[in-house]
């Protein structure tokens, strides 16, 4: 078998590149104008989505400072809705590792304050739950303890939970607000 014989024995027939049809003749196969337009539109959409994803930044904070500010804003909002406290609020804060075992961190705050005995835990919880329902947050409340206390849990669209407990005694109402931030971005 010579070299010229091996060129004639092919597994597949040689392919001819597609050619535009002569003027006045119909387009056929994959080289129709509709196919070319469709490929161009799909390519433009894919490029636009890729660029959008590449340059878009998430609206949720990813740094420790950002998640701390997010949590403190909500704790301050709840504190403002409770009314005037008897004394200054006490904040216990901590930065803990994320529960998923990743490299991120979480900011945790527990604020305690004393409200006047005239504050009704039920009315205060109703005011807070109404304000957060208006913001379309998930809200739940229930009785707490045997002395007429109430507790509430509000979870926002940002998935930051805020827990509130109001426990009355003879002289005052103790309010405890607890919240944990989302995890920070690793790195």
Please describe the topology of this protein.
Blueprint: H1 3-8, H2 33-55, H3 64-82, E1 90-97, E2 105-116, H4 121-134, E3 138-144, E4 149-155, E5 161-168, E6 172-180
Antiparallel strand pairs: 1-2, 2-6, 3-4, 4-5, 5-6
Tell me what the structure shows:
With 187 residues, the chain is an alpha+beta fold. The protein has 2 domains: 53 residues, no CATH class; 117 residues, 3-Layer(aba) Sandwich (Protein Transport Mog1p, Chain A). The protein has 4 helices and 6 strands; from the N terminus they run H-H-H-E-E-H-E-E-E-E. A 6-stranded antiparallel beta sheet has the order 1-2-6-5-4-3, with helices on one face. It starts with a helix and ends in a 7-residue tail after the last strand. The model has no long low-confidence stretch (mean pLDDT 83).
In short:
This protein is α+β, with helices and mostly antiparallel strands and 187 residues long. It has 4 helices and 6 strands; from the N terminus they run αααββαββββ.
Task: Give the SSE string.
Answer: HHHEEHEEEE
| Biggest beta-sheet profile | 6 strands, antiparallel
Number of helices: 4
Helix content: 25-40%
Q: What's the Cα radius of gyration?
A: 33 Å
CATH fold group of the largest domain: Protein Transport Mog1p, Chain A
Number of domains: 2
Give the termini separation. Answer: 65 Å
How would you classify the quaternary structure? single chain
> Which CATH C-level class of the largest domain is it?
Alpha Beta
CATH architecture designation of the largest domain: 3-Layer(aba) Sandwich
Mean pLDDT: 83
Low-confidence stretches: none
* Beta-strand residue percentage: 25-35%
């Amino acid at each position: 078998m010579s070299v010229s014989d091996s060129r004639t024995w092919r597994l597949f027939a040689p392919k001819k590149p597609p050619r535009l049809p002569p003027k006045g003749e119909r387009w056929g196969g994959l080289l129709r104008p509709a196919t070319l337009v469709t490929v161009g539109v799909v390519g433009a959409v894919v490029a636009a989505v890729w660029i959008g994803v590449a340059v878009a930044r998430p609206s949720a904070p990813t740094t420790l400072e950002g998640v701390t500010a997010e949590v403190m804003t909500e704790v301050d909002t709840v504190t403002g809705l409770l009314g005037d406290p008897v004394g200054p609020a006490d904040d216990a804060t901590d930065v803990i590792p994320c529960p998923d075992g990743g490299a991120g961190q979480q900011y945790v705050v527990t604020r305690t304050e004393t409200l006047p005995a005239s504050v009704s835990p039920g009315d205060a919880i109703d005011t807070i739950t109404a304000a957060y329902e208006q913001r379309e947050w998930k809200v739940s409340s229930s009785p707490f303890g045997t002395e007429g206390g109430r507790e509430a849990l509000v979870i926002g669209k940002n998935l930051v939970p805020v827990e509130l407990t109001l426990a009355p005694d003879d002289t005052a109402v103790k309010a405890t607000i607890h919240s944990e931030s989302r995890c920070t971005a690793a790195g």
